[in-house]
Design goal:
By secondary structure, the protein is an alpha+beta fold. Helix 1 packs across helix 2. The strands form two sheets. The chain has a six-stranded antiparallel beta barrel with strand order 1-2-5-4-3-12. The protein is 34% helix and 23% strand. It is built from two helices and twelve strands. It folds into two domains: 89 residues; 149 residues, Thrombin, subunit H (Beta Barrel), CATH 2.40.10.340.
């Protein structure tokens, strides 16, 4: 009995033969397509039937292409966002710098106008150094003895009195703020003309011993009285923010706030003393007959 063959290779058409057969079939289809409409209609039906397969075959390609386009757009948007943020930060910095410069120009312009209108002998000076402590009562300006600055000269900004020259060098001077505890300023109430004294109080101002029988109201403006050789009359010093009377005291309890920008000014006006005298008021000499009780 013959055994079955174990050969797994089936004899078939060779590759060359397959090519010849497929070429003949293609030529035959081309000839039939040109001569018979039935073949054209059959081709359309076959194309329609095969379209879903073509669509499915193209989906991976389309997905990869769309993903590449999406990630490219995201990268472009991210780059544009970073660039816009950088430009925005730069513009904000420029605006801030321009704002500071504008404020300085406005302040300098106001001081120049004040100097020309009312204080022709005063000099505009720039603050070149502030103490690191924001509550410090001194700063340095860029004018000194070479500019005829003298110890005791008054210093103001465009809003009001800031302080007094307490030390003079050839090219710079030290200014002590009116809030220094050693400062006493002859003043008067602008509305009524009642004279008084304003005391520095280690960072603030104090109006002591103002008699309760005199008129004093909230928002009253206190100005220099001119009753000394240092401060010309009429320079704003402070405004009244709170007034209390009663409790059997002959004096008001008063809170006042300076009108000058003590720690925010860039330029100041140095006002020469009335008679060129060097003088400095302190709490020890300004009050001729102070009451025995301290009114704090």
């Amino acid at each position: 009995m013959a055994e079955p063959s174990l050969n797994f290779v089936h004899n078939g058409l060779r590759s060359t033969s397959k090519l010849v057969v497929l070429s003949l079939v293609a030529v035959a289809l081309l000839l039939l397509d040109n001569r018979y409409d039935v073949v054209k209609i059959s081709r359309n039906y076959i194309g329609t039937a095969l379209y879903p397969l073509q669509w499915l075959a193209m989906q991976p390609v389309n997905a990869v292409s769309n993903s590449m386009v999406f990630f490219e757009k995201q990268q472009n948007l991210s780059n544009e966002n970073r660039m816009l943020k950088a430009q925005n930060a730069q513009l904000k910095l420029q605006i801030s710098q321009l704002d500071v410069q504008l404020k300085s120009v406005v302040s300098l312009d106001h001081l120049s106008q004040l100097q020309k209108a009312a204080l022709p002998q005063a000099q505009v000076a720039q603050i070149v150094s502030n103490d690191a402590n924001p509550l410090a009562d001194r700063f340095i300006i860029d004018k000194g003895s070479h500019h005829q600055i003298r110890q005791g000269d008054a210093v103001s900004d465009e809003h009001g009195l800031i302080g007094q020259i307490t030390s003079v060098q050839p090219l710079s001077s030290e200014v002590t703020l009116i809030t220094s505890s050693n400062t006493v300023i002859p003043a008067m109430v602008m509305r009524t003309g009642v004279r008084t004294l304003i005391y520095g109080r280690s960072g603030s101002l104090d109006l002591r011993y103002f008699p309760a029988n005199a008129s004093l109201m909230r928002d009253d403006l206190l100005v220099t009285s001119g009753m000394d050789s240092i401060y010309p009359a009429g320079i704003p010093i402070a405004t009244v923010t709170q007034v209390q009377s009663g409790n059997g005291s002959p004096y008001y309890r008063v809170q006042i706030e300076p009108v000058a920008q003590l720690h925010n000014s860039n330029f100041v006006l140095v006002i020469p003393q009335k008679h060129g005298q060097t003088a400095h008021y302190s709490a020890d000499v300004a009050v001729t007959n102070p009451p025995s009780a301290n009114h704090d």
